[in-house]
Amino acid sequence: MSSSAAVASQQPPSLFDPVRIGAIDLANRIVMAPLTRSRAAEGLVPSPLAVEYYGQRATAGLIITEATQVNWLAQGYISTPGVFTPEQVQGWKKVTDEVHRRGGRIVVQLWHVGRISHTSLLPPGEVPVAPSAIRANTKTFTPEGFVDVSEPRALGIEEIPGIVEDFRKAARHAMDAGFDGVEVHAANGYLIDQFLRDKTNHRTDEYGGSIENRTRFLHEVVQAVANEIGADRTGVRIAPVTPSNDIADSNPQPLFERAVERVNALGIAYVHVVEGATGGPRDVQPFDYDALRSRFDGAWIVNNGYTFEMAQAAIREGRADAVAFGSLFISNPDLVRRFREGAPLAEPDRSTFYGGDAKGYVDYPSLDPA
Ligand code: 8OZ
Asked: What are the pocket residues of ligand 1 if the criterion is a CB atom closer than 6 Å to any ligand atom?
């Protein structure tokens, strides 16, 4: 997809050119990646600080929110927000109003963590759910601190439609909250990725085994969301080779090619692909991302460790329609302006990434107006 500006001038496209992604018009191709910050208030409602935080970053072409639960069992870390109660929807409405008032666009990332959770985060008597009862070798933040995740139970096949339905309802709530769209989180070892990959999916029913079966849950969730809010407001995030959260697949190339084909058939607005290990090295294992992209007709958003120069090259050479930046957006609310002016970039403070208050959240300054 090339912008009208680029077409008119016959110049190669730039990160600073507008682009249309499905039904969403972006002022530029610089996207704020989803970032877990664990600062939601009582009831997993986005706090007033979240209004300020996202508002400060509204010059991004598109903001993708932090991962947001579709139901009570979808939570895996302390103080991550939801979008399934009226209070949560009202909280998000304040966020979307502020971002829109400042000229930005914002979609909510919907997730279910599956096995990456702990009983202390779930309603009494509940344990984490997963495609198969295989405990992840990883830890999570809970009210009791940083602890091993709990042993999950395998979902009964009769429970799966209810989870798909919770994604559908959350997508409707997202529209009520004023979002421009929804990104389905199918990356980083959470529930949808647990169904996709064969290290975590040992099912013998129609949701396990073959690639066709392992991509079925992704397909059903994305179809439900797209039917509810429009395919042109629906995106998906994948991370084909990330080892995050003890996830792996014996043959990710054909698996993710088929996953992309299936969401392409639904006509969704974009695919957002994390290249390499999420938040880590880009070259963890060989993978042909061009082969994925050749199976998709909508917008292609890339992510993971991109510098300004790498991102500009990806756009110029047509390898992506937009580029998502994560940690740089934490410490540079005006990242778009800094890129444009070649201004120095502030380094993020990792100690304030998760939890806490305004410090490390809304106190990174923008450049002076002049
Ligand atoms: C960091 C900490 C907790 C969650 C992801 C939503 O990896 C996350 C996440 C990242 O997608």
From this structure: 36, 67, 77, 187-188, 244, 278
In this predicted model, what pLDDT tens digit does every residue of 67-91 receive, in sequence order? Answer: 999 999 999 999 999 999 999 999 9
Is the pLDDT at 7 greater than 60, yes or no?
no
User: Which residues does 237 contact at the CB level (< 8 Å), separation at least 6?
Assistant: 34, 64, 109, 183, 184, 185, 186, 187, 271, 272, 273, 274
Out of 65, 77, 113, 274, mutate this one to test ligand 1's pocket (max ligand atoms within 8 Å of CB): namely 77
Residue 200 lies in a domain: yes
| Domain extent for 123 | 3-352
How many domains are there within the chain? Answer: 1
Ligand 1, atom 2: closest residue by C-alpha = 36
- Closest atom of ligand 1 to 111 CA is 6
pLDDT (mean) for 275-286: 97
Residue 135 lies in a domain: yes
- Tell whether 360 is covered by a domain: no
Distance in angstroms (rounded) separating the CA atoms of residues 180 and 24: 7
Task: Assess if residue 242 is contained within a domain.
Answer: yes
- What CATH number corresponds to the domain at position 81? 3.20.20.70
pLDDT tens-digit map of 297-356: 999 999 999 999 999 999 999 999 999 999 999 999 999 999 999 999 999 999 999 999
CA of 143 to the centre of ligand 1 (A): 17
